[in-house]
Design a protein that fits this description.
Its EC number is 4.1.-.-. With about 200 residues, the chain is an alpha/beta fold. It has a single domain, classed as TIM Barrel (Alpha-Beta Barrel). The strands form two sheets. Strands 1-2-3-4-5-6 form a six-stranded parallel sheet. A two-stranded antiparallel ribbon has the order 7-8.
C-alpha cells in the first residue's frame, strides 16, 4: 500500500528519549523492558534467530503492549520474513515500525505504517535524504555496527572506528561537509543523533 502526502495524520512522537530493544520471542521480558524505558522496540529481526521468528510473531500478537510506547523492528524489505512480519502486525494495534536495513524510498512507503528507517548499509547512507523525505518516515536511526562493517571498517581495541571509506560515504549522505562550508539543506527534519542498535532488554 502506498501513501499519499495527506494520509499521514498525527505522526507518532516518542514519549521520551529512552528506548530499549527486546527480543520479540521473549514475551516474559516485554513489560519489564517497558517499565525501564520510555519506548520498547520489540525486535523481530537480529534479536531473533530465523527458526524462532514464527514464535516471535505469535508472541507479538498474544502479548500486546501500549502502542503509543512500542515500536516493532521488522525484517528488511524484499525478504519473506518482511511480508510475514507485516501480516502479523495486521493482527495488532501497533502502528510504528523500525525498518531494518532501509535502502530506498520504495521500501518505506510500501507500508501504511509509520516508519523509523534504520540506516545500516552504505547504500542506505547515501540515500538517507531521500528516505527521510518519504511521507511515512517519521525518523532515522543509524545501525552503527552493521554500517561500519558494511564499509569495510572496524574498531580498534579502545573503541574508536578505523575510518577506511567511512568519510566518503558519510559525506555522500550529507553527514559531513568541508570545513567552512554551509550545511546542505535537509530533505527532512526527521533525523536522530547517531545511535547504536545493540541495546537489549534486561533479563
Amino acid at each position: 500500500m502506498h501513501l499519499e502526502s495527506h494520509q499521514l495524520i498525527n505522526a507518532w512522537t516518542p514519549p521520551g528519549p529512552a528506548m530499549l530493544f527486546c527480543p520479540a520471542d521473549r514475551p516474559e521480558r516485554y513489560q519489564k523492558a517497558l517499565d525501564r524505558a520510555d519506548v520498547v522496540i520489540l525486535d523481530l529481526e537480529d534479536a531473533v534467530s530465523p527458526e524462532n521468528r514464527v514464535t516471535a510473531r505469535e508472541a507479538l500478537i498474544a502479548n500486546p503492549l501500549d502502542p503509543d510506547r512500542t515500536i516493532v523492528r521488522i525484517n528488511p524489505a524484499g525478504t519473506g520474513d518482511y511480508r510475514r512480519d507485516l501480516a502479523a502486525l495486521g493482527d495488532t494495534n501497533y502502528r510504528v515500525v523500525m525498518q531494518a536495513k532501509a535502502e530506498d524510498v520504495d521500501s518505506i512507503i510500501d507500508t501504511a505504517l509509520q516508519t523509523v528507517a534504520l540506516i545500516e548499509t552504505p547504500l542506505g547512507a547515501t540515500r538517507a535524504h531521500e528516505i527521510a523525505a518519504a511521507v511515512n518516515c517519521i525518523g532515522l536511526m543509524w545501525g552503527a555496527e552493521d554500517l561500519v562493517a558494511g564499509l569495510g571498517a572496524s574498531r580498534v581495541g579502545s573503541g574508536p572506528t578505523r575510518s577506511g571509506p567511512v568519510p566518503t560515504v558519510t559525506s555522500r549522505a550529507g553527514c559531513v561537509r568541508p570545513r567552512g562550508s554551509r550545511p546542505p539543506p535537509m530533505a527532512s527534519s526527521r533525523w536522530t543523533r547517531s545511535t547504536s542498535t545493540s541495546l537489549t532488554s534486561p533479563a
